[in-house]
């Protein structure tokens, strides 16, 4: 009887294997894997099986009363009766494709009296297609299932209600023709490719130009953007103009809302008296181009846009006020933008002491044939460390401001630096700093009166003191 435990173990193993086979083959409710290679269950009910390339007409109506009708032409899908409408035919292609291959994994009922509870009486969407041979196919799409997100579906003429994939109902979720428009692209002008920009609002025109090499009427070549005025060019903030042009470059219509050039329609969207923006830029594919677009504020408070030459009207992300140009907002308000190569000498007054740093330059040919400029910095004839003087100068250039000042400085400046320059314009310029309160100083330079953090002023003073004491032995 020594082999009895072994016999029992073998018998138990056989029983377990038999039970596994019984369950996986469908016995006692066991379910085998009936999925096909494409992931569709073999038990799925095929409701439609149509060659989508044969469909020539599609029309559908919504329970809310909207009706849509489309036909296929040699130019793609068009709105029936209005072939010039800027339809994005990919929307119709998706509808046709979705309806031509509909499967369901569940028949819910064959009782027509229950249709209203599924959104099928009346149907949320009634669809009809006609193929190239004149065959018609009609379907009803109901509500979305509250938990599975599948839609209720009925083949016209039958009493059966099925659940079908979300995509079948979702592709008909367009309430207006405008929501199916092909949306035009905005000008693709980048900050570096733009040459001119005009913003016109209520008859007021602001003409802006970009000059990559700067302009001689300005004290520094660092400024590239200028507002044209009767008095000449006024420099604009590089950062703010770059941000504005980057917005233009990435702009796009969110959704279409209308298609018309009728003045009454434009007035509805605020496009007859909003912003008119014209931008000239260099396109990589088209060369020099000039394009215009319009921004309006509708009666509903939303922001709308239209591209010049197009009747398509759509919504955008940015607010109407974002495009309002105000010089005070965009003007250059930098603390200091001089470049050291334009300076011949600096006379500095600090706490009753006066220092004058002179700069002499010699030019010689380098081994590569280019001119090499050597600068020597002296104070009272004593040579200073070039690195220390450059660091002092950069401390001023790297200083940022905290905004404009509404107050007027009083008394003598805490720090005053006068620059004698080798330029045709702005030969003499002065930077002045006054103590304002415990946290800020008021600075005046190039017609700007600004607030500067006292910690930044201390960095300038520290680097100045190092420079004037850094004599070269």
Could you characterize the architecture of this molecule?
- The structure is a single chain.
- The protein is of the alpha+beta class and 473 residues long.
- It is built from eight helices and 28 strands.
- The chain has helices at 4-24, 90-100, 166-170, 238-250, 263-268, 327-330, 386-397, 454-468; strands at 45-46, 55-62, 67-73, 76-79, 103-104, 106-109, 125-131, 136-144, 151-155, 161-164, 194-201, 204-210, 225-229, 232-235, 255-259, 275-283, 287-297, 303-307, 312-315, 343-350, 353-365, 371-379, 382-383, 403-404, 415-421, 428-435, 440-445, 448-453.
- The radius of gyration is 38 Å and the shape is elongated.
- The model is unreliable at 1-8 and 19-40 (pLDDT under 50).
List the helices and strands and how they pair.
Elements lengths: L3 H21 L20 E2 L8 E8 L4 E7 L2 E4 L10 H11 L2 E2 L1 E4 L15 E7 L4 E9 L6 E5 L5 E4 L1 H5 L23 E8 L2 E7 L14 E5 L2 E4 L2 H13 L4 E5 L3 H6 L6 E9 L3 E11 L5 E5 L4 E4 L11 H4 L12 E8 L2 E13 L5 E9 L2 E2 L2 H12 L5 E2 L10 E7 L6 E8 L4 E6 L2 E6 H15 L5
Antiparallel strand pairs: 1-5, 2-3, 2-7, 3-4, 6-10, 7-8, 8-9, 9-10, 11-12, 11-16, 12-13, 13-14, 15-19, 16-17, 17-18, 18-19, 20-21, 20-25, 21-22, 22-23, 24-28, 25-26, 26-27, 27-28
Helix pairs in contact: 7-8
